[in-house]
Description:
- The chain is an all-alpha fold.
- The protein has helices spanning 2-47, 52-57, 63-67, 72-77, 87-104, 113-144, 150-179, 181-200, 215-230, 232-244, 247-262, 267-296, 298-322, 325-353, 360-376, 382-400, 403-412.
- Helix content is 78%, strand content 0%.
- It is globular and about 55 Å long.
Amino acid sequence: MRPIRRWVALSVRADRWHRLLTVGAEGVASGVPLMVGSKLLQGWLTASQVPLTLIGLLSVAELPYTLKLFWAPLLDRWPLPWPDRRRGWMLVLQITLAIVIAAMALLQPSTNPASLTAIGVAALLLATCSATQDIVIDAYRTDLLPDAERGPGAAAATLGYRAAMLAVGAGGFLLAGRYGWPTAFLSAAALVAAVIPFTITAPTLRPVQHAVTSLRQAVLGPAREFLHRAGPNRSWQLLLLVLLYRWPDGLLSAMAIPFLKLEGFSDAQIGLVQGGWAIAATMVGTVLGGALFAWLGMNRSLWLFAAVGAVGNLSYWALARFGGGFAGLVTAVSLENISGGMVGAVFVALLMSLCNPRFSATQYALLSGVYALSRSLLSAPAGVVAERLGWPGFFLFTVATAVPGFLLLGRIAPWGEQEARGAFDPERDPT
């Protein structure tokens, strides 16, 4: 019996690592097109002497990332059956993205209207395919991972995403400087194509019960199911938690660079710490958050990581109040990004736990859209608050904005329970 138990344990462990490796690889596929359509394309246009006004207009092409929730129901309604209901779309979109990015290497940036039109169309097509891929990858990760693996899975996905940012944001520019911009785009296309074998060999999802059979179901069903499962009182509290949990992070991000500039740090210092070390610190925090999540569970992780996030914001208050020079800058950025990585890992796990596999594409897109409001509308007054209170007062204010989140956690994610109330449980699935 002992050899059989050992074999079973090894098999379970291998399956677990296969799932985590898969979501990490899909994180790479998500990160590459975003960086190509923003940083890499901006660099090429700038190097080609395209006016800054026209380069700025390309940000309009990123609207699909904001509007993707409107076509997310289509992916729940019309899944492609092979290899499974999520990976079918993932394969189609990854092949398309590799072709689009490779085709962009053929562009000739200039001020010619025809050239600018072609670049704009390519950027819009890239963003649309990338945003759609994000929908289906989020849904696949949500459907694939069991409860205990959501924290490590969120960490693996974030690590893959950050690795892609480094590969394209740093490696792409190095390749462009040495071999030319087309080579940088072809290399990014090859990186997306390298994920395709991982998608083909990824774990297969179990067939979903009560599949969506009409567009009306796909559009109205996600909200109805969520309200029915969570209950009318609990549902608005869960949505409010999604909105407010990362609000302190959004406020700090909005003012971090202006603060550092006004404190007298040079562009080189800010670029080195914020652009380089910050990504590494976030990856450290993500790994730490995923590991602790597996030990603590959902609710305790939500409490503990929110508290750690508040400490990260306090580090900026200390820098504003007491100074510290370059060492203080490194310390503050390190604490901010390590805590941010931990908060990000548990937050993604929370969103996954709130989705029903039947509607995961739409529900995850809607929940992430609610969260996006905290980084846009709720963080918009950050500059006004900073001017009124001064930098030390502003950073204390960002810490205070964590209080509503803690109050909500006390109601819907008590420390002594494992899972947030209203999270998906197949046994409670009313559909």
